[in-house]
Amino acid sequence: MNALLLTLLAAILAALIGLGGIAVAWPALARRTALAAAVAAATGSLLALLALVIDSPQAVIPLPLRLAGFPCQIALDPLRAFFAALVLAAGTATLGCAAVVKSSPPSGTAPVCLGLLGFALLGADGFVAGAALAIAGGALWASVPAERPAALPLGVFLLASLMTIVAAAAPPQARFWATLAGPGLLAGLAPFHAWLSQCNRVTPAPSAALLSGAVVPTALFRVLQLLPGPGSDVPPAWWGVVLVMLGTASAVIGGLDATLAADLDTAVASNTIRQSGLTMLGIGIALGATAADLPGVATMALAAVLLLIAMQAIGGTLLALATTAISEAAGTQRLDRLGGLVHRLPVTTACWLAGLAGLAALPPSAGFAAVWLLFHAGLGLPHAATLLSQLLRGGWIAALGATGGLSAASLVRLVGMACLGRPRTPRAAVAEEPPRLARLALLALASAACAWGMFVGPLLIRLVDPPIRALTGAVLGPIASGAGLASGADTPGYAALPLTVLLLLGVGVIVWLRRFLGIARATASGPAWEDGFAAPPAWLPFGEPTAQTAGAGFAPMMPAAEPDGLLAVQRLLFAARRLITRVTLITRVTAERRQPGGSASSRMTRAARPAMPGFAAPALILLVLAALLIACAAASTWSAPT
Amino acid sequence: MSLLAALLAQLLHTALVLAAAPFASGLRRWTEAVMIGRHPPDPRQPWRDLRRLLRKQPVVAENASPVLTIAPLVCVAAMALAAALVPTFTLGMAFAPMSDLLVLGGLLAGARVALALAALDAGTAPAGLAAARAMSLGCLAEAVLLLAILALGLLGGTTNLDLLMGQQRQGLLQPLAATVLTAIALATIAVAEPGMEGQATEFSGGDLALATFADQCRQLIWLNLIAGLFLPWGMAEPDGGLLAWLGGALAWAAKVLALMVVAAAIHCVAGTLRPGRRPVALGIAAALALLAAIVVLASAAAA
Q1: Subunit contact A401:B145, Cβ cutoff 8 A
Q2: How many beta-carbon contacts under 8 Å exist across A and B?
Q3: Which residue, A443, A455, A467, B253, could crosslink A82 as a Cys pair with Cβ 3.0–4.6 Å?
Q4: How many CB atoms within 10 Å of residue B44?
Q5: Out of B138, B205, B297, whose CB is closest to A405?
Q6: pLDDT average, residue stretch A67-95
């Protein structure tokens, strides 16, 4: 059964790539191909969901190509089916929105990128996965307008694909570091996370949504491969420690950045960094628990990990698409130029709020359920351990709380600044809802996010239990039940569904009581009380724009953030280039001074403009491709003895 | 306890706490006034204020959205649910399996978010600034709360409030040093946690009554939590009868009053905790909670 589904899925992914190609060749057909690609992605998502629900054993089929001694196979098991269903569902919404967006016709790169990401997930060996990831990165890069800088994201993609190939065949130690350096970087792991926000800013709307909802889950799928399968060697405990530390740092930095971001794109990217940080933290706990022979704790952490990834695919896509809708409607992404959108865009505002609340640690959201699971996994880690590991546990649990609080703060800030209050610009005051299909996609994603929160128990049993069994051989068991979550058999836990019902009941009772007691009188409306200040003049129709809070002060006071790792390297390179330029300049000027007649100043201006040679970017790509091939060869020699 | 009795206990408990919340607020002001030597206000004054506000017609800002109307409802619903989850006079109530400490923290955070969104809705400067302050302080409070819950979870092996209180009654939450440290940490969070100060400027009439009531509930929830977790005497057993419930209710009233007197005394001697000092207080609470967790683990390793 799985072999049939896998063949169909591969055909759909190939069709996505083909449709993208058609759109690239004939831009006039772009909207129709985007719609067709959305339908294809939806079909693929349903097929993957079917494969997940029927839960049949792994199927492997060979691809009709053989390269560098690799077998080139694709596979379908419950874990891959889980990820494929999520990524293709995210792709469906993205392509559907791209087909109806007003400002620009959709480019064909998004379906190509989605199809290749699907192959990167299904690839049974490192070569298929790595190559698909590299070309997907190329497609994403091609969608970026020429005038914007996009070399850094492309480099990250190429590095990730290279490291995927290396990790698939390398000995365990090298596999760990290669996974961190490749897919870990692609998922936005601190301290090398800033490329993600830069990429989110420069890429057009559909690519940015794919980055949140498809690329990051694909990268996290590769990180999940670090977990030992049933019957394989247990990895050393320090793997878990490293992942826990890096994940905690990413979660806090992402939460902090989302609370400080000046524009929506950066905030969405920071939310992604926070989410993948929490995921890494969960994977780290699972690794540590496996090393300490605590399968129950490892399963709990893994349930949290898969829940977080599902929410990243759904909620991340929702946030990216809502950002697009808002910036299309209001002409800007800057928080200090938005405001009051709830009156003009009620549907988009509700979805924006639902997406942020789904990712935040507020009951009854799925984000809260994930935090609950992570906390209880931390509680289940061994008591008798070194002081250092206890301090580490205290540290990451405090960070879990801090990032939960930051998620709530960023929710209030992003909804409050963009959608509530008074419009800060005339354009924001006349914003309009996105087209119906886009609203439908937003509503579908928002209801999926709410459903994952309310029905977290049943959904975990149906959709997360099979992947965990495929990954580690352990079962979910008493962790999930119809009502919600529990930390073990016969222990009370987090009852998501009853809590939701009680909350709604509480609201209903208050409304009914007010009506019953005759308190609910018609509401009068009047001007907002401005603490006695004079009314704004006629030429400020929305009031004094600076008299509203512009989003400062939502994050607790922190010491100035250290510069990001990659940016520091970039800065270093710039400094080196400046130094070289200056040295050449000095030598030239001194040489010209020796030669009489030459005008030093005119030459100086020419020399001061260090032109980046036009062939640098292609040469860089060629260099990386060569490295890719060398890695393939090395990997094949590594894998030869086994 | 039969299901019916558990349901009855839950209903009585919820009604008792919700009715007591404004009264507790009035009593706190009364105690403080008496200690300072001022003429004390009537303890029933908050009730009267709520009744007066409920009779008034709400006036909302012209540019306000439905958020301003919905937010107080969500805020009160979350607070009432949180109040229903913290046991007062008996254990084993109907919601006992749901009364998780993390859920409690989450509900408090949810109410805070609803209030902050409403504060930003009308687009006025002071309320917006107050919302930003409350949210940024909330980040720290939540981190410290999770550390305190970690210490309690390590002490009792669970985060369920009903089970933890039952264990405390039987003297199972050992070592005592860790319990005391956690109690001080929780009390510090209760003092430093952001309330509704400055955020309710756009509410009026019934909405203001709801928001005020939610804040009064929040204060009583913290008192109930500390009284139940660290002073569990007199609380009825899960299968206790009506008489045991009555005894439990009297003991609860005495405990809450005693805590209030202590809080008022500290307030009179040390003054109010200034907003700028709250992060420092939370930092101290974090250190205490972490210390409590380490004490638990050290004693577990020694045993």
Answers
A1: yes
A2: 259
A3: A467
A4: 13
A5: B138
A6: 89
**Is A67 contained in some domain?**
yes
A197, A226, A255 - which closes a domain:
A226
- Rounded distance between C-alpha atoms, residue B232 and residue B249, angstroms: 12
Any alpha helices (H) in A312-435, and if so which ranges? 317-330, 341-344, 346-359, 366-380, 387-418, 426-429
Entry pTM: 0.90
* The two three-digit tokens of residue A433, written as one number: 């809802």
In Å, what is the CA distance from B143 to each residue of A512, B181, B215? 37, 16, 21
Residue A593 domain-assigned?
yes
The predicted-structure confidence for B242-282, as pLDDT tens digits, reads as follows 899 999 999 999 999 999 999 999 888 888 888 888 888 99
How far away is chain B from the Cα of A259, in angstroms, using its nearest Cα? 9
As a dihedral over the C-alpha atoms of residue A431, residue A436, residue A440, residue A442, rounded to 10 degrees, the angle is -20
Q: What number is the ipTM of this complex?
A: 0.96
Sign of the C-alpha dihedral, residues B258, B260, B263, B264?
negative
Of B65, B76, B138, the CB nearest to A408: B138
Q: Which residues of chain A does B57 touch, with a Cβ-Cβ cutoff of 8 Å?
A: 521-524
The pair of structure tokens assigned to A294 is 């605590």
For residue A376, the distance in angstroms to the closest alpha carbon of chain B comes to 9
- Does any domain span residue A336? no
Stretch (H or E) spanning A175: helix A172-179
Last residue of a domain, one of A226, A255, A286: A226
Tally the domains of chain A: 2
Tokens for A353? Answer: 């709020």
Please say whether the beta carbons of A460 and A479 come within 8 A: yes
CB A152 within 8 A of CB A570: yes
Q: Are A22 and A37 in contact (CB under 8 A)?
A: no
- Put simply, the answer to whether B146 touches A401 (Cβ < 8 Å) is yes
**In which domain, by residue range, is A174 found?**
1-226
Judge whether A548 is closer than 8 Å to chain B, CB to CB.
Answer: yes
- pLDDT of the residue at A142: 85
A401 closest CB neighbour out of B60, B95, B147: B147
Q: Amino acid identity of B269?
A: V
